[in-house]
């Protein structure tokens, strides 16, 4: 569109020039007391209709557009502001809401009795929404936003979303992200967080991710410079807990974890001490602290002690409390204190009261510390508790098995979408591996549990006789039909009663039937379940690559000269041909499970 035309359109906003319609805004009110009708003095309250209902219930809005302002029972419609002169071609071209109304059957009936202009009636939740509605309509004409603050931008964004004003939501998002350049801006976003979009909205999730990312960047940068939120507003811990949300999200997202690791000790202390910081398990909070200390190696002993004080030890699982915690040399809890703590947390009320009296006289033991007295942190929000990690194994890794001698066992580690081989949950790390014995017609699939490396010292993972529950999880492998459709080949649900040995795996040794058995019913495939120690050991012994070693056969060819060169070349060609056939034969066994050159599946929680 030409620049002169754009400039001319912007002058038509609210103008009667060439206007062929009007936009009337109104609110529906509910009478609490008194009479209804004109001149009523009753107190009123606005109809409680959420923005999501308004966006989703186009039928309700459209059906009411052409009704006159009248009272119905205890409700009445009140006009808000003055009618806005508009142009059908412009507003219908730039807004789906008005285009839908223009195409409605009742359109000819919606005309002003005075000048015959068509009338669009728009319902607002409250009169306070009028400025943002007018700004969204102005955007249709000018393509520019007239917001003065972050709060104004969020209001315009919300209104433009349910009116479906083309390009307005995206323009608001871009401006909002550009506005977050200081700690004061983060405070302003936090203060009007009720205006942020819901995760259910189409553009909501990605925008929230970007906005929170911008806020975290400013929090890390400004707190490292010693800045603090202005007095009278939200505290630093509130801002951090809101932007970082929960410990599991921090551990799962590399960028968010790096932002957490960039926080100064004082800011991390505020985050750990916040009553609003959620987690799936207190062990994830301890793991998060371990990650921070691993990066911030210059932390003073005093700062480390203050940080550790905020870990709610009484909320740790028995495995972490009794097996892992004593091995953490950096955690300021000696063997004597550890015994005292375990005695305190397992004691009855009478004994605990007496122990509190004794501890009060000691500077080392304070029963009021979060170690002893803090309640469980808030649980994960619904959006974070349902987690889905897609994993895969490249077919080239499967093909390497063809070089193994008959009966040799190989373990193949799955990779998740971000390239990692492990994902965090409940303070541990979890991975998927596939076991296959050369020449077999079945393959095993296992969920494996690891102690995170930042908690390991001198191989303590191997010496811990610990078992861990993955919680409500499900491990799935897919297969593919002739039409390319995806089906479940094997799936196992885990619960609180399923325990995985630390460093070992739990699944099925015959999860996948190869070749002709690939179409076997899922129920039959789930019959065999077993714990795999060998797979786990093999996984660890080849930590950096996949557990299958490439054959060195033929690697020394050419090192010695021979008079029988033609015979050697023939033997080499024959060997290469045999390896090629073995590779093709092996991949044919896995063909029902391969898609885009990968064995694929998903690991889910929640």
Explained architecture:
This is BTB domain-containing protein. With 606 residues, this protein is an alpha+beta fold. The protein folds into three domains: 3-146 and 153-161, Potassium Channel Kv1.1, Chain A, CATH 3.30.710; 189-373, Serine Threonine Protein Phosphatase 5, Tetratricopeptide repeat, CATH 1.25.40.420; 386-548 and 573-605, Apoptosis, Tumor Necrosis Factor Receptor Associated Protein 2, Chain A. It is built from 26 helices and 19 strands. Helix 4 (88-94) crosses helix 5 (96-102). It is flat, with a radius of gyration of 33 Å. The two termini are 50 Å apart. Residues 33-71, 517-529, 534-546 and 548-564 have low confidence and may be disordered.
Please render the helix and strand layout as text:
Elements: H1 3-11, E1 21-31, E2 44-46, H2 51-56, H3 58-64, E3 71-72, E4 75-86, H4 88-94, H5 96-102, E5 118-124, H6 130-142, H7 150-163, H8 168-179, H9 183-191, H10 204-224, H11 236-244, H12 247-252, H13 254-261, H14 265-272, H15 282-295, H16 301-308, H17 318-324, H18 335-346, H19 349-360, H20 370-373, H21 382-385, E6 387-394, H22 395-399, E7 409-413, E8 415-416, E9 423-425, E10 428-437, E11 442-450, H23 460-463, E12 467-468, E13 473-480, E14 486-494, E15 500-501, E16 505-513, H24 522-525, E17 530-532, H25 533-541, H26 565-589, E18 594-595, E19 598-605
């Amino acid at each position: 569109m030409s620049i002169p035309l754009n400039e001319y359109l912007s002058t038509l906003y609210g103008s009667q020039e060439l206007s062929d319609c009007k936009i009337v805004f109104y609110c529906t009110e509910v009478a609490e007391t008194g009479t209804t009708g004109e001149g009523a003095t009753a107190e009123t309250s606005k109809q409680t209709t959420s923005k999501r209902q308004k966006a989703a219930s186009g039928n309700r809005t459209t059906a009411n557009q052409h009704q006159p302002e009248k009272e119905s029972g205890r409700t009445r419609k009140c006009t808000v502001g003055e009618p806005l002169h508009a142009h059908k071609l412009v507003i219908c071209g730039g807004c789906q809401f008005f285009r839908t109304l223009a195409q409605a059957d009742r359109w000819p009936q919606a005309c002003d009795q005075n000048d015959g202009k068509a009338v669009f009636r728009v319902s607002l939740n409250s009169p306070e929404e009028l400025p943002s509605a007018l700004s969204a309509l102005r955007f249709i004409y000018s393509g520019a936003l007239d917001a003065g603050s972050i709060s104004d931008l969020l209001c315009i964004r919300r209104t433009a979303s349910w009116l479906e004003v083309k390009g307005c939501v995206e323009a608001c998002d871009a401006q909002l992200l550009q506005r977050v350049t200081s700690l004061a801006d983060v405070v302003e976003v936090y203060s009007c967080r009720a205006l942020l979009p819901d995760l259910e909205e189409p553009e909501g999730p990605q925008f929230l991710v970007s906005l929170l990312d911008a806020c975290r960047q400013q929090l890390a940068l400004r707190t490292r410079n010693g800045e603090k939120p202005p007095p009278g507003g939200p505290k630093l811990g509130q801002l951090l807990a809101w932007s970082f949300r929960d410990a599991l999200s921090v551990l799962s997202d590399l960028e968010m974890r790096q932002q957490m690791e960039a926080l100064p000790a004082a800011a991390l202390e505020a985050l750990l001490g916040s009553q609003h910081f959620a987690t799936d398990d207190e062990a994830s909070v301890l793991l998060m602290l371990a990650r921070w200390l691993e990066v911030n190696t210059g932390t003073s002993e005093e700062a480390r002690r203050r940080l550790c004080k905020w870990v709610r030890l009484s909320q740790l699982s028995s495995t972490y409390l009794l097996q892992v915690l004593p091995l953490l040399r950096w955690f300021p809890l000696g063997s004597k204190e550890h015994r005292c703590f375990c005695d305190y947390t397992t004691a009855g009320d009478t004994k605990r009261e007496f122990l509190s009296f004794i501890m009060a006289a000691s500077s080392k033991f304070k029963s009021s510390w979060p170690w002893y007295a803090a309640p469980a942190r808030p649980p994960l929000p619904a959006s974070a508790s349902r987690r889905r990690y897609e994993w895969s194994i490249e077919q080239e890794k499967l093909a390497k098995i063809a070089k193994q001698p008959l009966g040799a066992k190989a373990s193949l580690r799955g990779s998740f979408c971000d390239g990692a081989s492990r994902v965090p949950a409940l303070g541990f790390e979890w991975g998927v591996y596939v076991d296959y014995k050369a020449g077999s017609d079945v393959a095993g699939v296992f969920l494996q549990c690891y102690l995170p490396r930042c908690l390991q010292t001198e191989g303590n993972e191997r010496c811990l006789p610990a078992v861990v529950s993955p919680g409500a999880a499900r491990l799935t492998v897919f297969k593919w039909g002739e039409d390319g459709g995806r089906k479940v080949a094997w799936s196992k649900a885990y619960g609180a009663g399923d325990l995985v040995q630390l460093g070992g795996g739990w699944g099925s040794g015959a999860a996948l039937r190869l070749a002709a058995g690939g179409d076997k019913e899922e129920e039959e495939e789930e019959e065999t379940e077993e714990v795999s120690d060998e797979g786990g050991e093999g996984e660890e012994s080849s930590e950096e690559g996949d557990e299958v070693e490439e054959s060195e056969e033929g690697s020394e060819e050419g090192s010695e000269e021979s008079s029988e060169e033609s015979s050697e070349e023939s033997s080499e060609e024959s060997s290469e041909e045999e390896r090629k056939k073995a590779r093709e034969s092996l991949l044919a066994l896995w063909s029902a499970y391969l898609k885009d050159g990968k064995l694929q599946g998903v690991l889910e929680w929640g």
